[in-house]
Specification:
Elements (H helix, E strand, L loop, with lengths): L1 E6 L7 H14 L7 E6 L2 H12 L7 E5 L17 E7 L1 H11 L3 H16 L7 H22 L3
Parallel strand pairs: 1-2, 2-4
Antiparallel strand pairs: 3-4
């Protein structure tokens, strides 16, 4: 699995931890190990611009996902089985830091959660409707819980 991570934010980010989380998530989702995923760690200005241009939002957001395909293997609506480039995820460490403080956990924990969240969006999951939200957040929590259990093994 090729995971390319570029940090243009000016913030110190544990790139290896995010790459490891992404790889684990993709493995848990049964994605072909030959698939590629790109990460951009962006500053507030760049994230605000992307949010405005692509989502119609205002100000910076925590994570944006740009899938290369409409549906991916593992989803009921999948149309292709041999996808090599999954898409791009953009994360804001500054927004993640604020959210982490509000939630009472570390910025790294927040960035890991945003990594999983972004990947699930890349894979076609959404949370616009209550049923979708239950599925997506349930899956997100299952992956994060499994990761945490893996980290604390003796």
């Amino acid at each position: 699995m090729a995971i390319e991570l570029i940090n243009e934010s000016g913030s110190e980010v544990d790139e290896q931890a995010l790459s490891d989380m992404a790889e684990y998530t993709l493995q848990e989702m049964g994605i072909n190990p030959a698939a590629d995923l790109s990460f951009l760690i962006a500053d507030l200005e760049h994230m605000s611009d992307l949010n405005r241009r692509w989502m119609g939002g205002t100000g910076p957001t925590d994570v944006l996902s740009f899938p290369m395909h409409d549906a991916l293997p593992g989803r009921p609506d999948a149309v292709e089985s041999d996808i090599d480039a999954l898409g791009d995820i953009v994360l804001s460490p500054e927004v993640a830091e604020r959210q982490a403080q509000d939630a009472g956990h570390s910025t790294l924990d927040e960035m890991r959660m945003l990594t999983v969240h972004g990947i699930l969006h890349i894979l076609g999951y959404d949370h616009a409707e209550p049923v979708q939200a239950k599925e997506m957040f349930g899956l997100q929590n299952r992956i994060l819980d499994a990761w945490r259990r893996r980290e604390v093994k003796p």
